[in-house]
Amino acid sequence: MAINDASSEAHPTTNGTTNDTNKASSPPSDAAPKTNGTAQTPTNANDEPSDASLFADLERESAEWNKDAEIDRIMHSFKLNAYAVLGILPGIPSSSIKALYRKKSLLIHPDKTTNPSAPDAFDRLQKAHTTLLDDKAREQLDEAIADARMLVMREQKWTVDSEELKGEEFLHKLWPEKAKQVLVDNELRRRRQAKGQMQEEGRQQRKDDEELAERKRKREEEEKWDKGREGRIDKWRDFKVPGLKNGGDGTGDKKKKKKLKVLG
Hints:
Radius of gyration: 52 Å
Shape: elongated
Strand content: under 5%
Helix content: 55-70%
Structural class: mainly alpha
Oligomer: single chain
Order of helices and strands: HHHHHHHHH
Mean pLDDT: 78
């Protein structure tokens, strides 16, 4: 009995060490559950989306709404007015136009949105940008818009100092509508001129073709005449000197008549 008691006293910490080891190896009761590697939406204690997740969703929806709104604005703008397509007023410098185009083109690029109208809107934006960077095309557009401004002032009996020229009605209604009318008239005039030019070019082309055909006909006739020249010369010789054809001396077969002597 003494031995057993001594053994128990000699190893008093064996069971205690084993228990501590087991406690250290077992996971805590409040540890995070394991996942399968897929991203999960952050949730709060009530298993609802967190504020950060909701904010991110709102940001995405807002970005898509901005893209759709800009595409819709471009598609409803007057495409002959490059300023209207870009959403700016005349007088803006080329450097600002380039920066604005880059920003809008990245916003509505067909690769960055699922909007079915994005390709058409992007194409219109590109054409407007090209027009405003072309000095001649922009000058013509500026002249048309300046004419529209003058026409509105004349109709409203305003002067260059009239405060109405700074108002919303003039800048966003009267002036754009008159500019649209002027640009349409200019485009119709350009098309008529182009059609007349095409018709004139067609008449000139037909005239040139007729002259070419006439020269070709004369040339062929001259070539044909030259080819028959030897034959005509031979016929002329046969007609002029018949004896040469039969090997004669050219005097013909006619016999000289003897002179009759007078008797008496």
